[in-house]
Amino acid sequence: MAKSTIYSALDLRDEFNQILMRESDIALTAVSTPSSMLWEWLVMPQGLKNAPATFNRCVTHLLRSVRDFAPSYFNDVFVHSPAVNGKTDVEVHKEHIRELLELMRKHKLYANLKKCIFGASEIPIIGCLVGKNGVRLDPEKVRVINEWPTLSNVKELRQFLGLATYLCKYVDNYAGKIRPLSQLLKKETEWKWTADCQQAFDAVKQGLTEAPILAVADQDRPFHVVCGASDFAIGCALMQHDHEGRDRVVYYQSRQLKPAERNYPVHDKELLAMKYALAKCRVYLLGSGPFVVYTDHASLRTAVKSPHISQRMARWLSFFAEYDFRVEYKPGRLNVVADALLGRPDYAVKIAVTNRIDVESVSAPSSSLIDDVKAAYASDADAKQLLSYALAPSDEARRRLAPHLRARAHRYRVHEGLLLYSAVDDDVIRIVVPNDYDLRMRIMYEYHDAPTAGYPGREKTYLLLTRDFYWNHQYKWVRMYVRACEVCQRVKPAAFSQAPLQSLPTPSECWQPISMDFVYGLPPDSKRRTDVVVFVDRFSKMVHLAAVPAEVTAVQTARLFVDMMFKHHGMPLDIVSDRDPRFTARFWQEEFTLLGTQLSMSTADHPQTDGQTERVNRVLGDLLKSYAHSFQQWSDCLPMAEFAINNSVHASTGHTPFYVNAMRHPRLPSMLGTVASSLSGGGSTVVSEQPQKSADTDTVSAMTTRRQAASPSGNETTDKKYGSVQGTDTATKNNTSVQGTDSAQAGPAAGKDAVLNKPFST
Predict the structure, then answer these.
(1) Which of 167, 508, 641, 651 is buried deepest, with most CB atoms within 10 A?
(2) Which stretches make up the Integrase catalytic domain (predicted)?
(3) In angstroms, rounded to a whole number, what is the distance separating the alpha carbons of residues 609 and 319?
(4) Range with the lowest mean pLDDT among 30-34, 323-327, 516-520, 696-700?
């Protein structure tokens, strides 16, 4: 409504009674009458609990085609029109009214003419008056406030504050003004009407009487926020410049500080005020584009630059990352609105020096990597030729290409400045990386060394990398990079002797058969946790991890099961665990019996029955050791470890656990800034003309067949190793326990890599 100049309001009549009751529910509306008869409602009455929501949803749905100029709220429809395309506002408004009435006639919605307003410069909307000048208080409500008698008890005080608080967005420093009154609402406080209470009572009434006309929020104009804090309250104002350049208030908000918050240092109080402002104005600011936050505390400009921040500040900074804003400093003597919010004297307004807060915007994330790829095309002769050809393909352009590029020229295309490549028809579309050594090494770091990758082996790194990027001889680059990785050589253990496997039935559905276990003996973290509980889906190989103390009980383990498994995937039909007392406790037995779950217990002293979880435990131990140099505590890197495991291709399925569960790959940080839905990072991985449901069914069927074929071969491979250690000639020290986060090897170890199917040429 920000740009509209003429308004109308329609009030719908008999609104609830126009919706029929479901036939099976008619009997539930029966009422007894004095004549001893039962009456049943055939249409929806007003007394039903969900009747208002049902009606509001119905009207919103029926009038959805005109919501841009005729939004509705329950039985009220508000029509607003500006002057556009050379037409006056009256002409446009008539067209809008006519379109709305035709739609109402079509759906048999009727208005009460006595309550309708047409062609007005201002209309009442939910307790306020909205017009071309902005939003102001309803004079009738202001009159009621002004005539309110002096309060005599807590009940009357609650009634007064109920109405005043509803209108508080029009009053600056409302929380500070009512502080003496709110003190009377505390428990065990004797009612005593003092001079301070009377002064606060009069100040609230005066503030509502002199309330300014607020601006109607215009999403096409940038917002700015003013915030501040005092010893007992915090406040903020959402503001915008109107078409004449005047600074207009859109929204006031304030609250008193809690007892614990009053003990915060000044810096934290000011930061709390900024957090409060963003939370209260979230609907206006989130996704609206860059905006400015004005504060009279200069240190907020560098809030994230300190190497030592409290846990509280760390939580707040993660909240700020959702918004795209910068902080500008205004000294207290210049910050007029902040002074008003906190009850300080007013001074002339003046904008001071600016500084940008160093937080990344989550609302519109981007990655410099993609921009660097685009920029590097200019220095690669082959890439420049392919870009020119892909932008304007023709026989003449093809003949101008270098001979080694012509045969595959048809596989390239351009999208948003990126050169894309597809190896064969219906293959994954990948970003072409130019011949830039530093850029390629940076990309391989993201897909091997980054916490989201988790130092996978050569084959898994290759499959993960080629999901998004392509260049010639890519496999050789990956092989040399992984072979030279110091962390992999130091952490990855050599092969060791293990007993023959005993296969379990091959699963055919996600999260129906699962396995669970504990990883013991890790160094205590800040919360004295030394163990990790591991849940594994036996079909997709997806894992969930949680840090727990060594003395975790059966009840706590059951709670973890509900929080991490049941609420996301439902109850599995089959659970495999070891003989740990936490799994065999009567609590588990009774719970699984009631839920109809078959608890499969592995054979004592033979953990190979649950070899899948034992393998995950080993991989997890390697990951935690790999992350030891990047995280202060092993528990901090558990989320990254879980992501890395779930984003690695598994040999038995040929896909990552993420893909098996959701039929899509997660978007990696390196792919931020690419919006093409055809790219694999967060989008569709395969371009297919078949319906998605059919493709998903075929994929699941293929994975089931592959698992059945892989199961015996996996046993044979493992059984051949029984009693011997193969593939390690140069290992100087071996440590098979997960104890601590020290390296598993003192020197490099050579061994055979499990070769996965490579779908891309090298």
Answers:
(1) 641
(2) 501-665
(3) 45
(4) 696-700
Residue 134 gets the label, from left (phi > 0), alpha (psi -120 to 50) or beta, of: left
**Are 669 and 676 contacting, i.e. CB atoms less than 8 angstroms apart?**
no
Instruction: Considering the chain, tell me which residue range(s) the CATH 3.30.70.270 domain(s) occupy.
Output: 6-124
Provide φ and ψ at 13, rounded to 5°.
-115, 155
Question: 723-741 burial, b for 16+ CB within 10 Å, e for fewer?
Answer: eeeeebeebeeebeebeeb
Fold (CATH) for 368-491: Endonuclease III; domain 1 (1.10.340)
Over the stretch 394-421, which tens digit does the pLDDT of each residue have?
A: 888 888 888 888 888 888 888 888 888 8
Which amino acid does the sequence have at 133?
Answer: N
Three-state secondary-structure class, residue 253: strand
Note the CATH number of domain 137-209.
3.30.70
DSSP 641-694: HHHHHHTSPPTTTSS-HHHHHHSSBPPPGGGTT---TTBSBSS-SS--SS-HHH
Write the CB contacts of 720 (distance below 8 Å, at least 6 apart in sequence).
Answer: none
pLDDT(288) > 50: yes
Over 90: is that where the pLDDT of 136 sits? no
The model's pLDDT over 27-36, given as tens digits with 9 standing for 90+, comes to 998 988 888 8
User: Class for domain 513-718, per CATH?
Assistant: alpha beta
Residues of the chain with CATH 1.10.340.70: 368-491
Fold of 223-355: Nucleotidyltransferase; domain 5 (3.30.420)
Q: Which tens digits make up the pLDDT trace of 328-338?
A: 887 655 565 55
270 Cβ contact partners less than 8 Å away, ≥ 6 residues apart:
227, 228, 229, 295, 296, 297, 299, 300
